[in-house]
Design a protein that fits this description.
The chain is α+β, with helices and mostly antiparallel strands and about 180 residues long. It has helices at about 5-25, 30-75, 80-90, 165-180, and strands at about 105-110, 115-120, 130-140, 155-165.
Length: about 180
């Protein structure tokens, strides 16, 4: 029986390991699957984040549209706070929209920086009578798809203000009657 020295065994083992690693390093099969496995979670998170941002923007558009529908309702039908609130709530299929704060009607004079609230019938600095304005607000809460503690529920709000209402509607009805006669 021949005796194999331990040094020979270590060299032979090292040589075998070197050949194994050289063979594995040159083998490209399965590399794409490993790369996909490493990148898939990142790509999925990016996709879900983009969908979440898109839904948030869409919800913001729905809230803005609901406020606009409320002011259009007031322009068509006159000021009725309950009816305007119902128009805001039923304007979209987004169930958490509310008309908050409540619709408001006031008289004011338009200036370069906004609208100064005055009593109805007052003459404005330009000589015109104070206009009647309606302000309709809509509000909703948006919950992110990603349940991250640093991004709590987002409150989306929109406000729409229009001049006119019942007096504009009455003028339109009068002109239609006269045009038809």
């Amino acid at each position: 029986m021949t005796h194999i020295s331990p040094v020979y065994r270590v060299r032979r083992g090292a040589s075998t390991l070197r050949r194994f690693f050289a063979r594995v390093a040159g083998d490209q099969s399965g590399a794409a699957a490993i790369e996909l496995g490493l990148l898939a979670p990142v790509l999925t998170l990016m996709m879900v984040s983009m969908i979440d941002i898109g839904l948030g923007v869409y919800r913001k558009m729905q809230v803005e549209d609901a406020a606009q529908v409320g002011t259009q309702y007031a322009m068509r039908n006159g000021f009725d706070a309950n009816a305007i609130s119902n128009a805001v709530i039923s304007a979209t299929n987004f169930s958490s929209i509310t008309a908050s704060p409540a619709p408001l009607q006031f008289c004011g004079c338009a200036t370069g920086s906004g609208i100064n609230t005055v009593s109805c019938g007052t003459t404005c600095p330009g000589g015109a009578l104070a206009g009647t304005y309606t302000t309709v607000s809509a509000q909703a809460t948006y919950s992110s798809l990603l349940n991250i503690r640093s991004f709590p529920n987002i409150i989306i709000s929109a406000r729409n203000r229009r001049r006119g209402c019942s007096e504009v509607r009455e003028n339109v009805e009068r002109s239609e009657r006269y045009d038809g006669a």
